[in-house]
Request: fold
Amino acid sequence: MIRFLINRLPSFVLLLVVTSVIAFALPRMVPGDPAAALAGSDATAEQIEAIRQQLDLGRPFVVQYFDWLGGLVQGDLGTSILSGRPVAELIGDRVESSLELTLVAATLMIVIGGVLGVLAGTKQKNWIAGLLDGIIGLLVATPPHVTGLVMILIMTLVLPYWPISGEASLISDPGYGFQLILLPALALSLPQAAAVARLIQSNMRTVAQMDFVELARAKGVPPRRIITHHILRNSLGNALIVIALRVGELLSGAVVIEAIFARNGLGQLAVAATQSRDYMVVQVIIVGAVAIAALVNMLSEIGLAILDPRIRLDTK
Amino acid sequence: MTDTAFSGPRASKSRGLVASMLRTYASAFRRPRGMLGLAILSVIVLAGLASPWLWPGGVDQQSRDSLLGMSLAHPFGTDQLGRDIFMRTIYAAKISLGISVVAVPIGMVLGTLMGLSGMISPRLGTICVSLFDLLLGFPGLILAILIVLMVGTGWLSLVLTISLLSIPQFGRLARGAFLSEQAREYVQAATLLNISKTKIMLRHILPNTLDPLVVQLGLVLINGVFIEAAISLVGLGIQPPTPSLGTLLNSGIRYIYQQPLYAAGPTVLLLLLALSFNLMADALNAATGRDAQGDR
Amino acid sequence: MTDTNHTGPNRRRFIQGTLTAVGALSLTGLAGEAVAADKPTLLKIAQASDVQPRAALAGRGPNATWRHQVFDTLTTLDAETGEPMPVLATSWTISDDSKTVVFTLRDGVTFHTGRAFTAEDVIYTLNLIADEGSISQMASIARKFTQVEATGPLEVTITSTDPIGKSIFDVAQLAVIVDQETISGLEDGSKVVGTGPFTWEEWKVGAMLRLAKNPNYWAETKPAIDAIEISIITDRTAHANAARSGTQFVFEVTPSEAVPFEHDRRVTLMNSPAGLIFPVGMNVTIAPMDNKAVRQAVGYAIDRDRILDQVFNGFGSTSDLWWSETEAGMTDDLIHRYSYDPDRARQMIKDAGAEGAEIEISLPAIPMVQAVFEVLQYNLREVGLVPTGRVLNVTEFDGLQANQDLGAMFQQIHGLQGFSAATLVDVLAAVRDQNPSNIPLERYRALKDKLQSSTGEAYTVALKELAEYMLDEAFSHVMVHAPSVSVVSTKLTGARFNAVGYLELVDAKLEG
Reply:
C-alpha cells in the first residue's frame, strides 16, 4: 500500500498545482473587481480607483500567485480582501456549521440506508419489493436540492410553523438547532442513503445464494436467524467502507443545500466570496475541495483493495 | 466499474453491430419499466413541443389576474404576473430538457475520448484521470457561478457548465472499461498482429464500452436538468421571461405561502422526469445484461 | 384617459416610522432597567446582507441596523418633518448667506474606550469623508467645505464657498463620529468604537454581529436592552422565516414575504421612511434612445400601477420623482407626469421610426430588480420595442455603472431616500453628473447649482424647474418608490427609524 501511495504522490501533487493555478486564475478572469464591491453601488469611478490603489491589486499576477503559494506552504491561507480578516479565520468560523450538517446527514444516511437496504434485501411480498425498489430508485436519481424543495413544500403545507431555514448551533442551542438541521440533513442524506441501500441489498442477495447459507437453511436454522447471523454479517463488511467514503460526498453536496436552507457553512462562504470577487477566499476553498475529493478517491481505491484482494493497487 | 458481466467482445462488422445494438436498446423499451419511462417522457416532450399551438397567447401572456387558485382555465393557477403556471411549467420542461440534451452529449463525447486516451499514450491517460479528479472535486456551484460571470447569464453558460460537469461522469466509465478491455486477450492479440491503435479502439474497445455509456447517458441527462435547476435557484440560470424549471422553482419558493401550487408544479415535473429517466436506465441495464441492483 | 389612481384598494397602510407604545419611553424607562437587572434581555435581529464596518461613514443598507447603536451623529433628521434634531451637537447657528455653520457640541460624552469627545473628533470625521479614498456618498459635498475648524473645545465652525445651510445636515446625518485612535479597526471590524448606546463586541464575518449595552452612555435614559445579536441570513425566504422562530426584528423583507405576516398578530410590519426607488435609465447618446420622443414614450409605456400591485404587493407608491413626493412644491402633475398610456407610447415610437428596435436592458442580479424587469420588458414589447435582458452580477454592474457604461437602457435600484432633493441629485448614480445616461451637463448642472444655492421659496421654484427639465428630458424614469418593510415582534417597543432609514434602538424595550 505504501508503494501505491508513493506511486500516486507525483500525480496528486501535480493535481494540486494545476488546481491552484486554475483556482487563482479563473476568478481573476471574471469581469468586475473587489474594489467595486467594496466601494458600493453609489460609488463613482474615481472612488473605485482610489480603493483599487489602497488594496494594492495592481501587482503582477505572477508575483501575487507565488506570494499566495509561498504562504500556503507555510500554512498561511492569506487575508480576505473584503473583510480584512485572515482566510483561515473565515473558514474556521464556518466549519462548525458544515461539519454539523455532514455528521447529522451521515447518521441519517446510515440509519435510513441500512433499514431500506435490509428490507429490500430480504424476501418480501411482490408489491412491497416493487415499492421498495421504486423508492430507492427515485431517491438515488433525485439530487439533494430537489429532495430539499419537496420537503420544504410539504412542510409549509403540513406544518407551517416548522422552522424551515436558518441556522443555530447544535452545541449552544440544541433544541432549535436540531429542528433546523433536520430537513437539510435529511435532504442531503437521502440520495446517499438510497445508494447505500442498493449496495446492502445486492450484497445480501449475493450472499443469500452462497453455499453456506444454503447449508444453514438445509440444517433448519430459522429464517430470521439466517438473515441476521449469516447473510447480514457477511454483507455489511464492504458496505461499511463505502459508507465511510460517502461521507466525503456528503460534504461536497452540502453547498447547494446550504444555499436552499440558508445555512452559513463553507459553501455559502464560497458563493458569497465568488459573487463579491474576494479572490483570496475563493481560491483557498477551491483548492481545499479538490484536495479533499482526490484524497477520498485515493482512500476508496485503497479501501476497495483491502476488501477485494483480486484488485491489485500497483497495476493502475 | 470493473465489470465482468459484459457480453463477449463485439468485433463484428460495424453495420451489423449498430443494428444489434439498436435491437438491444429497443428491446429495453418493450420491458414494462422502459415503456413507462418512455411514456412519461414522451408526454412531457410532446406537450412541450405542442405548447405554441395549445397556448397561442405565448408563454409571457401577463394580466392583472395574479396568484389565482386552481381552475379549469388555469389547472395550476396563475403566477404573480397573471401568467398560467401550467403552461409555463410545460414550456420550462422543454427548455430545461433542451439545454441538457445539447450539453450532455458534448460532455459524453469529450469524456469518452479522454477516458480512452490511454490507448494513444499511457501518460495522456493519466493526465486525463487527473483532470477527472479535478472536475469531480471542483465545487460545482462555484464553477457554475464563475462561468456565468465570464460568459453572462443564459443558455450558453448553462451548456458549458453542464457539459464540463458531465465529462468525468462518462470519462471514468470509459477509462474503467478501457482498462479492463485492454488486459483481455483479443486486444493483446490485435496489438501483436500490428493492427493500428485507432482501429483497435474504434473496432474493439469503443463498442464494448458503449453499453454502460448509453445507460449512463440517461442518468446524466436528468442530472443536467437538475444542475440547471440548482444554478437557477441561485438566480444565475435562464433569465425571465423565458421559464425554466429552475427559474420557476426559484420564484415559486418566494410565493410558497401565497400560492403553494406555484412551486409544486415544477417540482412534480422534475420528479416525473427523474422517475422516467431512471426507469429507462433500469430497463436498458437489464437489456444490456447488467444487473441494475449491482450498480451504485 | 388612463388610470392615475394611486390609492387603490390594494395599497397597504403601515405604522409610519415609529413603534412607540404611548408614553413607554418616559414612564417606564426606569422600570425597564429594573427588569433588565433580573434577566438580561437579548434582542435578535435578522438581515439579508452582512454588515460593513469599513463603510461606516457611507450610506449602506446593511449598516442600517447597527450603525446608530454604536455611533452617534452631530444631528439627525426628523423622520416626519425632515428638520435637524440635536444629538452630539446641542445647538447650531447658520450665517445669513448660509455659507457658515457653527455647531456647539455636547459636554460629557465619551467614546467606548473612555476618551472624551471633543471638537477635534468632528474635524477628523469630516476630513475622512472629504478624503480622497472616501466612499461616502457625501464626499463631493464635504469637499466643498473650505474650512473646518475648532473655535473652542466644544465648538466647530464650518465654512464653504457654496451655501450649505441645508446640505450640511445631510452630511451630518451620514457622518457618524468615529474614534481616531482605533480607526484602523474599522477596516476588518476588529475594533469599532463610537459614542453610541451600544458597544461593538464580536463580528463573525458573514454570519453574526453582537452588540452589548453601553452602561456609560451620555443620555439620561440608558438603553433598556442588554445585548443585540444580528444574524446574517442571505437566503430571502429563510430571512423572512426568522420572524416565525423567535427573531424579534427582521430587517427589510421583500413585499411578497411581508404579505403572509399582515394578519399575524404576533408581529407588526414596520416601514422605514427611507426605502428604495427603482429607476430605468436610457443613454441619450445611443440610438434610438438619443431621440427624446422615444425616451418619453418609454415613460408612457410602463404600467407602474401593475408593477406596484404585482411585484411589490401594493407596498409603496408610484412616482416619477427621484426624491420624496413630500418635497416642497411637488404637485400631482409632477409626481405622475408619465401615466400608463400604451397607445400613445406606441404611436410616439412609430412616429420616431423606432418600431421593432432591439434594445438590451442591463440590470443587476437583484431579485426585486429582476422581478420589475419582467413587467418592464412586457410593457416595452406591447408598444413595439424588442427588449432583451442582460443580467449582471452586482459587482460587475456597479463597476459599469461607475464607468457610465451600461449600454442603451438599464435598470437601477437606489437607496438614500429621505435626504433632500438638493443632495440626492448629486449622489444618486442615476441622476448625478457622472450618470450612465450621459445627459449633457450645461443646463442640467446650472439647474442643480441654482437649487443647491437657494433656500425657502426660491428652493421650491428651483426644484420645480429642475423636475420639469428632468421629466422632459426623460433620461431616467422612476417606476416605484418602495418602503423598506421590517417584520417586528409586538414584544418590541420604542424601536424607530430615522429619516434616512437607520434603526435607533436607544429607547427600545423588549417584553418577557
